Amino acid sequence: MKRILVLASGTGSLAQEIFDADFSGEGAEVVALICDRPDAQVLQRAEVRHIESYTIPMLPDRAQWNLELETLIAALRPTLVVSAGFMRILPEAITSRFRIINSHPALLPLFPGAHAVRDALNAGATETGTTIHWVDAGVDTGEVIAQEKVEILAGDTEESLHERIKIVERGLIVATIRMVLAHLESQ
Ligand code: GRF
């Protein structure tokens, strides 16, 4: 069986879509969630779906946190790691060791970073979208796998635009996981 590991930090609406998807056709299943925030709603979503979850709160010593995260990921033996709203930059030791994809709410290379939706609005863009990409040690710099556009409407706020982007992200992340899994061997 191919093993999918989800990383998420917040509300978890993307993670929910992954938890709800049936990957048996790909010979895969979601084995666990790792979250860095003990109060994140995504932890309840995992519990409801009976998906094992692990919380690793950030430590004063970032190197120690990196090591804890790497050790935990290794123990979970993922075929594919999916960063779905995980708001931490992963260190090179992790990005080079595991196959990791990330969903980003903009059309990379435009608007990388933590405020992609706001940045697109502030730039006066007329369209933005979502990108699924391989994760490397940079900030949203890894190779692009799939993208989908979202129109920016007059009167859009960061919240309204982000909600429309997230609808597209949910579909694209699941479709991309299916596509990527077809090319990966189980461990
Ligand atoms: C998504 O837009 C993701 O791309 C971004 O954070 C959002 C996560 O939303 N990094 P949710 O917590 O899954 O609802």
Structure in words:
The chain is of the alpha/beta class and 187 residues long. It has one domain (2-181): Rossmann fold (3-Layer(aba) Sandwich), CATH 3.40.50. Helices cover 35% and strands 24% of the residues. The protein contains 6 helices and 7 strands. It has a 7-stranded mixed beta sheet with strand order 3-2-1-4-5-6-7. β2 (28-35), α2 and β3 form a beta-alpha-beta unit. It is globular, with a radius of gyration of 16 Å. The model has no long low-confidence stretch (mean pLDDT 97). 5-O-phosphono-beta-D-ribofuranosylamine is lined by residues 10-15, 84-85, 103-105, 166, 169.
Distance between the termini: 8 Å
Indicate the CATH class: Alpha Beta
The Rg value, from CA coordinates, equals: 16 Å
Count of helical stretches: 6
> What oligomeric state is this?
single chain
Spell out the CATH superfamily. Formyl transferase, N-terminal domain
What is the number of E strands? 7
Low-confidence stretches: none
- What is the CATH T-level topology? Rossmann fold
- Domain module tally: 1
Mean pLDDT: 97
Class per helix and strand makeup: alpha/beta
Biggest beta sheet summary: 7 strands, mixed
Order of helices and strands: EHEHEHEHEHEEH
Report strand order across the widest sheet.
Answer: 3-2-1-4-5-6-7
Which CATH-level-2 architecture?
Answer: 3-Layer(aba) Sandwich
> What is the helix fraction of residues, given as a range?
25-40%
In short:
With 187 residues, the chain is of the alpha/beta class. The chain is 35% helix and 24% strand.
